[in-house]
Amino acid sequence: MALRFAFIELALFGLGSALVSKDGVTGRLPAMGWNSWNEYECAINETVFLTVGELLVSLGLKDLGYTHVNIDDCWSDKEIQRDNVTGKINPDYKKFPQGIKHTADEIHKLGLKLGIYGDAGTLTCALYAGSLGHEELDAQTFAEWGIDYLKYDNCNVPHEWDDEYRWWPDNWRGGPPNEDQTAGGVGDSNQAVAPPGYDWTTSKTFDRYKTMRDALLATNRTIEYSQCAWGHAHIDEWGNSTGHSWRMWGDIHPVWPVVTTILNHAAFFYNSSNFWGHADYDMLEVGNGDLTIEENRSHFAMWAALKSPLIIGTPLDGIKPEILAILANKELIAFNQDPIHGESAKPYKWGVNPDFSWNQSHPAEYWSGESSKGTHVFVLNTLDTTQNKTVDFAEVPGLDAKTEYTVIDSWTGKEQGRFQGKYHAVVERHDTMAIRIVKAGSSGYNFQKILW
Ligand SMILES: *[C@@H]1O[C@H](CO)[C@@H](O)[C@H](O)[C@H]1NC(C)=O
Ligand SMILES: *[C@@H]1O[C@H](CO)[C@@H](O)[C@H](O)[C@H]1NC(C)=O
Ligand SMILES: *[C@@H]1O[C@H](CO)[C@@H](O)[C@H](O)[C@H]1NC(C)=O
Ligand SMILES: *[C@@H]1O[C@H](CO)[C@@H](O)[C@H](O)[C@H]1NC(C)=O
Ligand SMILES: *[C@@H]1O[C@H](CO)[C@@H](O)[C@H](O)[C@H]1NC(C)=O
Ligand SMILES: *[C@@H]1O[C@H](CO)[C@@H](O)[C@H](O)[C@H]1NC(C)=O
Ligand SMILES: *[C@@H]1O[C@H](CO)[C@@H](O)[C@H](O)[C@H]1NC(C)=O
Ligand SMILES: *[C@@H]1O[C@H](CO)[C@@H](O)[C@H](O)[C@H]1NC(C)=O
Fold it and tell me: Which residues, by range, are in coiled-coil regions (predicted)?
């Protein structure tokens, strides 16, 4: 209990954000960048990252905020995992001939930041050296190399580190917050369901992630901390005290049912995000797999709306102009990166199903949120046919039926005109209407026009 109070106090006095406070900037807003996993998995080398760095600059993505170049799994030497004298993780010199520090130096020359990948178990997911028990040394090593961001995964955790109770978001079916059914035989059924009100900061998962936080804090460098614990042990309840972001779910895949499944979960757990701490719905699959253009758009719009980190996972060389246009959408990025409003968009109506329905194929469709540039509304069409979708201003938090509003289409950036009461638009199958609404003729709006 004493420990828990200590954390609440730390959070209240801003020390909970000590990870971020060395420079007062890092981690305040959701991270934006690129990560190698979705496209290359283990087939990486220094050239991949330096090329991506150059493309982030030349495509204009850096100027839009995409500044992280993140190395995922498989960067270290799989055979000789650690130096037998210093104990440091050995880079794979075949992939990084001059070591990771050289890659970091080159990335920094481009005005970008280099991220690396580690694991809170004995081995990473692809069976390279893990950091459990080596947190301090590994954090120091990353700092020496000039690393700016750590994605810390959750594979190969030894049994003595098993949590007493289990909560895996993938198994949750909309019941009580601690409910965890071992649906489909997923996971370790030896772990019981936690009692109501269970304090998840007493879990071993918390310990493992906090130990790396402390190790990062002890270095002489600000390293953004991305906790990839897949939502386990209700990290949504404590991840803000240990890091800058936390994964909310298992791995994303570039197919529509996974996108809607994650959105359905988000409709019940969006509240944990705000400045300095971000619910991470996993890296972007925009441009990958079997998504249609409309699905690519919805995936990006909703991840931006949820204030998820926006980490591109598609190759940038030869990127299709329509995919680049989605990733470069200024209105959506501005909502995600708003300096004044830190909260995620929230569902205000479900649509296909009654409000608060748990449904992985038809999640909440009507979402809204505030930014310093107005009220943003996101209307997803989860049906398989084109729909005429109506935004009823009386239903949107902060708006009313009487006021006249100017509506801006966030996809085109164009004013749609002035509206009172309702706004409607045709939304293709699996597409998302994204609009920004401001009081008609308000000075705030004119100011925004000047800014943009
Ligand atoms: C996360 O912590 C920071 C400061 O440590 C605080 O400003 C923010 O509101 C917290 N987020 C939530 C959702 O409580
Ligand atoms: C680096 O990796 C990329 C992507 O897997 C590959 O196409 C390229 O041949 C590799 N280059 C070297 C020098 O290994
Ligand atoms: C330590 O590693 C080096 C390089 O791989 C090797 O030559 C040496 O024999 C090892 N020493 C011990 C004590 O294992
Ligand atoms: C820590 O970093 C600061 C600023 O970069 C530097 O002035 C200082 O010498 C460093 N201290 C150590 C112990 O490396
Ligand atoms: C989110 O927080 C708000 C304000 O405290 C509350 O009204 C709402 O019920 C919460 N939503 C969920 C899904 O917990
Ligand atoms: C959306 O992304 C997927 C994956 O690249 C791609 O196959 C598809 O072509 C994209 N949609 C369009 C119409 O470009
Ligand atoms: C999800 O919603 C659809 C549309 O209302 C419905 O047909 C389906 O049965 C629902 N699925 C579940 C698991 O409730
Ligand atoms: C959409 O619905 C509104 C009424 O809700 C109607 O006025 C409008 O004409 C419809 N648009 C289309 C394209 O069907």
Answer: none
Separate counts of helices (H) and strands (E) for the chain: 13, 18
The residue extents of the domains of the chain are 5-344, 347-439
The 8-class DSSP code of residue 76 comes to B
Name the CATH superfamily, with its identifier, for domain 347-439. Golgi alpha-mannosidase II (2.60.40.1180)
**End-to-end C-alpha distance for the chain, whole angstroms:** 49
251 among known catalytic residues: yes
Q: Is the CB of 86 under 6 A from ligand 5?
A: no
For domain 5-344, the CATH architecture is Alpha-Beta Barrel (3.20)
What is the rounded average pLDDT for all residues in the chain? 91
CA atoms within 13 A on the CB side of 315: 11
Tell me if 358 CB under 6 Å of ligand 5: no
Instruction: Calculate mean pLDDT across residues 62-82.
Output: 98
Per residue in 201-215, pLDDT tens?
999 999 999 999 999
Length of the chain: 452
Q: How far apart are CA 417 and CA 124, in angstroms?
A: 53
Q: Tell me, in angstroms, the distance from the centre of ligand 6 to residue 292's CA.
A: 5
Q: How many CB atoms lie within 10 A of CB 196?
A: 8
Q: pLDDT per residue over 134-191, tens digit each? A: 999 999 999 999 999 999 999 999 999 999 999 999 999 998 888 877 654 445 556 7
Q: Are strands 68-70 and 32-35 parallel, antiparallel or unpaired?
A: parallel
Task: Write out residues with Cβ below 6 Å of ligand 8.
Answer: 388, 390, 424, 426
Closest residue by CA, ligand 2 atom 12: 45
User: Ligand 1 pocket, 76 CB below 6 A?
Assistant: no
Residue 228, number of CB atoms within 10 A of its CB: 26
Do 5-344 and 347-439 have matching folds?
A: no
> Whose atoms come closest to the Cα of 269: which ligand?
5
Contact (Cβ atoms closer than 8 angstroms) between residue 280 and residue 308: yes
The answer to whether the CB of 16 is under 6 A from ligand 1 is yes
Is residue 401 within 8 Å of 325, Cβ to Cβ? no
pTM value surpassing 0.85:
yes
Given the residues 105, 162, 207, 251, the one annotated as active site: 251
Residue 76's DSSP bridge partners are 91
Identify which of 103, 102, 96 has the alpha carbon closest to the alpha carbon of residue 69: 103
Catalytic (active site) residue 162: no
pLDDT one-digit tens code per residue, 9-48: 333 334 344 454 467 889 999 999 999 999 899 999 999 9
CB distance 56 to 112 below 8 Å: yes
Average pLDDT score over residue span 302-321: 97
